[in-house]
Fold these 2 entries.
Entry 1:
Amino acid sequence: MRNARLILGAGLLLGVLGAGAKPLLAQQDPPPPEPRLKNYHPDETTCKGDLIRSSYAKNLLPWAEQPAPVLESLRQVQAEMTRATLASCVRQKLMTPAQAAALQKELGLIEPPVAQTLPQPSGTGAAIRP
């Protein structure tokens, strides 16, 4: 009889704990929604050289007091975005390739050659600029 009460008590305890665990599991936050990607298509105003120049010069001013590594990362993002905008302007025929290239050069957006690791006779594989 005592064993029956023990088994019954254990069963009730497991039932209560099991029922209590289900609502806890159900309360978990759902996964975040997938981000919606939006392709930016510049217009005639956006593709004006003067606007691109002034925006490029002013866009990072709000973050001027950030540490150097943060500013460098922001500059890289800004450069990538500006290059993409110029390429889109050219694709949409809102700017000539020559105008975009001149603006890229003026803003210092021409990418330097990437260091390549080439095998050396000594086998060290030191980086050499092409």
Note: Residues 2-26 form the longest helix (25 residues).
Entry 2:
Amino acid sequence: MAQREVKYESPAHKIFAGKSNWQGYKENDVIAIAFESRNHGTLHHFYTLGSVVGYAIDNCNCPFESVEKAKERGHKIHWANQNSSMITSDARPQEYSFMQEHGDHIKFHGKTFEIVSTPNDNISLKLV
């Protein structure tokens, strides 16, 4: 098995190089996008990938019906939620994510999306 390049590592978090398009991302994968802070150098925003299908399966609903309802209501089928952060003194397992940048193309659920910056440090997945 090939080793993935580590882009950043701390006791709480490890960020690997982004996945190639032939690998693709799956439900609940976390992507990291770096940004420059005024006082602390390079920091990262973390986003969890999600979809109507994954949400429906997790909640024992029919994924086909859920997709149809989402389309009828004009909701997005795929998204990325920004993760919150907290400081804790408790021992926790190291979390991991994959490094990406705004404008990158990623493969998620068999479709190619562009990562688009939106207001308030959020991102959107634009179907390519």
Note: The chain has one domain: 6-127.
